[in-house]
């Protein structure tokens, strides 16, 4: 996807009116880097702080300050290492896990791959699962980096149907049509012919890619809100698509923040035999909160960059990938050594009878997380 993203970014720059690029404070920047898993656990300090266990399993990457009660404060002061390529990034990024439901009713966790093969770096090809993280500054005006203590949630885990036609492209899936990430063309969530709001309904020979885009506008005051969403907003004009100019922020949320995007590649290749799918032919992949539609895909973020390192990156023009100005990086071996001890002891690798924390026969009583 690298070449496609760069082409899209070049198109954005070329489309700018004369003189506008010079008016941008920070130019056009796209940090893109991998983070290995720091732990897989049934904890959610954002939505279910202090709950052990939380309602469903998550994959978490980033700093080793992650715990069930990290509700306030600067997490960069509580972490001593990070699984991310940028060694000054102690943030935590997490999503729900994906499971395959076999015809006999048992479940198995779907592993994650690195990035597509176009990204030939260690944090793409050697992380053994995890999340690819993007911070994009491709909007008009100054981009203000997140502040210590900032956190947010995007998506609605209770959604099970198509969103309205004005969807701001915050959530999409791409079915890799061939091995080696076949069909990985164009920037994420841009092409309705290859990107879908729902999980793909047929086997994907090369796996399934998830992309989750966070809002790009902030109220400038609150580091969090009761639902972890009201302090942020999408633009009021123009689509909030990847590498877009983003349109105008609402008056209630006037501060432009980096466009944060997660990318997860789910390695579904071991589960492509339709003879093992449910007998009724239904879509067999379930997120850990009991959703096999994909409409409930969501993601959590807790900011934890050291000092003003992220702001410096956003102010540096034309940074691409996992190198930017004076930002420090670390070797993949160091990143993979960083970990957090699992708190809830559950089987994450074998076949299980039900999703942890979810009674599949009583999904109506599912707790939101």
TrEMBL record:
Keyword Signal: yes
InterPro entries: DUF1996
Pfam family, one: DUF1996
Keywords noted in UniProt: Signal
Signal sequence bounds: 1-15
Name by which UniProt lists this protein: DUF1996 domain-containing protein
Domain DUF1996: 44-305
Keyword field contains Transcription regulation: no
């Amino acid at each position: 996807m690298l070449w496609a993203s760069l082409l899209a970014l070049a198109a954005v720059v070329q489309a700018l009116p004369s003189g506008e690029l010079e008016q941008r404070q920070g130019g056009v920047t796209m940090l893109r880097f991998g983070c290995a898993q720091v732990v897989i656990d049934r904890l959610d300090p954002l939505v279910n702080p202090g709950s052990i266990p939380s309602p469903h399993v998550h994959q978490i990457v980033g700093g080793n300050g992650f715990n069930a009660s990290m509700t306030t404060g600067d997490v960069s002061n509580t972490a001593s290492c990070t699984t991310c390529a940028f060694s000054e990034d102690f943030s935590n990024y997490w999503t729900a896990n994906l499971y395959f439901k076999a015809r006999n009713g048992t479940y198995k966790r779907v592993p994650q791959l690195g990035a597509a093969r176009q990204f030939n770096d260690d944090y793409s090809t050697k992380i053994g699962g995890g999340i690819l993280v993007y911070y994009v500054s491709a909007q008009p005006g100054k981009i203000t980096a997140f502040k210590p203590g900032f956190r947010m949630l995007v998506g609605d885990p209770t959604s099970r149907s198509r969103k309205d036609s004005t969807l701001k492209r915050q959530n999409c899936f791409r079915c890799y049509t061939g091995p080696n990430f076949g069909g990985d063309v164009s920037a994420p969530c841009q092409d309705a012919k290859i990107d879908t709001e729902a999980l793909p309904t047929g086997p994907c020979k090369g796996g399934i890619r998830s992309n989750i885009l966070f809002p790009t506008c902030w109220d400038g005051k609150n580091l969090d809100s009761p639902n972890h969403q009201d302090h942020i907003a999408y633009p009021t004009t123009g689509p909030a698509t990847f590498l877009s100019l983003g349109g105008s922020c609402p008056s209630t949320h006037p501060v432009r923040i980096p466009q944060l995007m997660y990318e997860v590649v789910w390695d579904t290749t071991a589960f492509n035999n339709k003879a093992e799918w449910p007998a009724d032919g239904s879509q067999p992949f379930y997120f850990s909160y009991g959703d096999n539609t994909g409409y409930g895909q969501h993601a959590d973020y807790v900011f934890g960059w050291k000092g003003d390192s992220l702001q410096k990156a956003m102010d540096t023009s034309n940074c691409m990938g996992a190198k930017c100005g004076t930002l420090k990086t670390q070797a993949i071996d160091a990143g993979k050594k960083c970990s957090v001890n699992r708190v809830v002891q559950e089987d994450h690798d074998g076949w299980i009878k039900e999703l942890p924390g979810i009674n599949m026969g009583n999904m109506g009583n599912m707790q939101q997380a």
